[in-house]
Design brief:
By secondary structure, the chain is mainly alpha-helical. The protein has helices at residues 3-20, 27-49, 109-123, 138-146, 153-170, 179-186, 200-218, 226-276, 280-358, 362-438; strands spanning 66-76, 83-92, 102-108.
Length: 446
Amino acid sequence: MSSDEDVQSNSVTEQLEEINLENEDTSEAKLLVSNVSDLAVIDSIGNQLTSSDPKDNDSMPIPSDFKVTIRDTEKRGKGPSSYAVYKLQTKVNDVPGYTKKQYETWHRFSDFLCLHKKIVEKYLPKGVIIPHPPEKSIITAALIKTSDEEENREVIDRARQLERYMNRLIQHPRLKNDCDIRDFLTIDGGLPETVQTSTSFGVMKMLNNFQDVIKKMTMKMEEGDHWFEQTRYQIDELDGALRKLHKVSESLAAARWKMVHAEEELGFTLSKLAATEESTSLSRAISALTDTTGKISLTWMKQAEIDAVKFSEPIHDYIMLISSIKDVFDQRVRLWQEWQCAQEAVVKKREQKSDALRRMRTERADQLAMEIEEDVRRTDELERNFKNLSADIRKEVERFHDEYENELKQILVEYMECTVDTYAEMLQLWEKFQPIAENIQVESLP
């Protein structure tokens, strides 16, 4: 970590200590300390991943000429057939294929899954790291169908996640001009094969994963490229650290919500006590304390939202991106296995040709010679594809490293700043209550 980042980290830590982290025994303080420890591990791994200099323009940040926002949602249909649709507002600036500067389209969640399926089919074999959309949830779908609220909580959360997903897609230099993405952003309505996305795509992915496991057991790849071996190890380490951090962030948000309920219960109890207190000054102080705990409860609620939106969700996005990196690494292994199978086929047919010549079966030998020639061409093509895919994956990983370093720093700084503001707000509430507590007059008993 650089000296500037050390100074910034120390500054944030000092502000937290000055505000309200005096009680180090609280579960919340322990969670914050655990977060700092996890961040140190992640930062160390990130420095290792970004040790190599970028060798391609694709690894550098691109101008923000695309932006997708999702602010409006609607519930359409009634009963079991109801579903939510999301309004996409796209602003475009000098991107080929787009004739207007702004577009508005409505899409349901299954449309996003259909788009993701098309993108994966086209670009995963090319080694592109493809962002993941929000996971399909039966519970979320059921809540959307049964809820009568205009602003359903699950719909709002999913809209926010879909917005991040779409912006990651259009900011990728190899995806921004894709025709399917362009149609999705410019044409209103559903996309072809939408019905198949929820079931067949998942089943096919599961079958492919099963086949990959079998192939890995029967034909294990001996990695000859040190860069891929080292990067795979570092990616696995980063994945583990981020998953641990994500788990802690969820526990932290849950602890905040417990504080919300505890403050609400405390305020309710204090209000009853204030109503029965005979001392005027003490009753006034308890009433003021009731009001303070109510505001503290709202502040904890706001912080719980910050923990989820600005910390936990972005960390989960990166976990899914790392899953995409593993997908392209697995794609490289599959291509290598196909290349090896082609080589084995050539060797086998050459043996068959030699055997046919020994038996004076010239017609069969000539046929095998033609097949061998075709298989050799296919083997050479697979070898070229393997080398090209390896080079493309290197560029993609380097691009991910650069973006990861910048975005993670921005996420953490913004989250820490919001957390500091929350504690500062609570400190002001207690400072406002302090004079009232000091002015309590103890009345002597008769």
